[in-house]
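so im writing up the methods section and need the DNA mismatch repair protein MutL record in one place, dumping it here so i stop losing it
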Amino acid sequence: MPRIYLLSEHTACRIAAGEVIERPVSIVKELVENSLDAGANIINIAITGGGIEAIEVVDNGCGISQEDTPLAFQRHATSKIKSIADLNCINTLGFRGEALPSIAAVARLSIKTRVPENNMGYHMVIKGGQVLRKEPVGCPVGTLINVQDIFYNTPARRKHLKSKSTEGGLIADMVYKMALIRPQTRFIFSHNGREIFRSPGSGNTLDVLASVYDVRTANMMLAINNQEQDIKVEGYISKPELSRSTRQQITVAVNGRVVRSRSINNALIEAYRGKLTAARYPVAVLLIWLPPDKIDVNVHPAKMEVKLSNEEHLQLLITDAVRRALRETGLIPHPVKMPATSEPFVLNLPSPANQHKVSNKGQAGAGNGNSLKERVAASYVPACDQQAPAGSSSSGNKDELGATVTLPSKADDHHSDQLAEVAESYKENPAFPDLRIVGQLLNAYILAQAADGLFIIDQHAAHERVLFEKFFKQLSVPNPQVQYLLKPVNINLRLHEQELLKEYAVELRAVGFVFEDFGQGSLLLRGIPAEFPPGQSEQLLADVAESIMEQGKISSAKTKHALASLLACKAAIKAGERLSTEAMEALVARLAGAGEPYTCPHGRPTVVSFTRRELDVMFKRT
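--- predicted struct ---
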């Protein structure tokens, strides 16, 4: 057995830093929480290069005395608890005494701080846990902390950071959440020298909602309030017509602390059951107050997760408060104004009198010897394409489902096998059965027959698979099919979302988004993917920005998959939409030529079948 050694303080600090400081947003969170604990009502956060290059937090709190400043950088040194008994009644955001030494262990840190009773402040410079300078300094009351060269001595962690825009977006989102739960504090956030956000500090959460999002969003929020004994739930929730594609816009705070809680999120989502479509989530700010002895905040190094007493009772209070707010207000959505496009979005088509056969073996219909590619191409009518500006004539192809289609050619040799397979998505697929369209069931399923039995195709899942492969390919082999808007749309998003979209403008152009910086914190949208109804433009871009921020660099296969899945799900025909026989035939023909035709990108089946023998057994014909 190897001998047991006591780790050095330097090594122990590096290990602790790895637990507390995961990425730049962790540093911002810890510093801002210290500022709030110090009683600050104005907090200025400035970052450079997404927080990877530099972070500076300045507050007007009570400051730290000259005697205590060096102690603040010792592990487990804190002014917030004194004994183990205090852990049962935590009233501050910080208490572990690990934040400052952990940050100083993996970066170059400079602090200037002054308490009101002293005329002079104190200055320290620490790099990698080693004190380089300490001296008196003139400075205002409060604390200024500047952090640079983050993770300079932990290259593995620095290597796995996401792009600067993504890291900056995570910090912006944390600042927004802090501002929403602390409306009485003014937060000022700057990135690369440009002010991104300033909260009013008025104490009114609706004012902060308007500054984080916009006035329209704030007007669509409903106040909630529920209290039972010593537990209180309050905040704001969105009407069902305002939703997002991820849970990112659900802000939860327990006793003034931003936390992640699956149980609280589930209670909120349960209250919206039947009011939101699948995979859509509300915008919400939930503020939960309960006695300090009913919450354990010491279960996670970064204090992002907490353990609550009587969690089931709290869930019931949340669900009841949200349902009551939704029940007491009118939920009829306002009509969406559809901007003009070069051509209308077409879905419903005349139904032919006769049934058609879809074949992948060179027979696309009775008496027709065309190949599958020729049959699919022949089933489309002209529409706008990537070369058609607003108001001009079109030269592309458009199928009965309203999608502009260019049959992909063989991928270049340097592309991966996966992309090559997607590029061949309209080739003949010998494994897919020869089908004859029978009809549509419940406006959701396509019924088809083959020599061996009955096939039922989920129209949404099938169209989603076809579009997913198209978008996934376009993200690496750009072949944009754009629906240009006759009247460009001014898109107002949060500034960090706009920065993300601008960073990935080339990649988004590859799938059909055409936009430009319009100044004053807005984007001018000129074109969208050909498959989309124009009225979804603003919501779609917001979902795309959230997907990029959640998944990471768009060049990664994981993010390409997530983005292509999102776009495909948005653009695909939905259950409940009536299709003509020709439209059903075109969709099944495209599915037959897909690289992976049997599941949608989320793994759900696109088609199920019953053999003739299985049907005979069910009807007891054997």
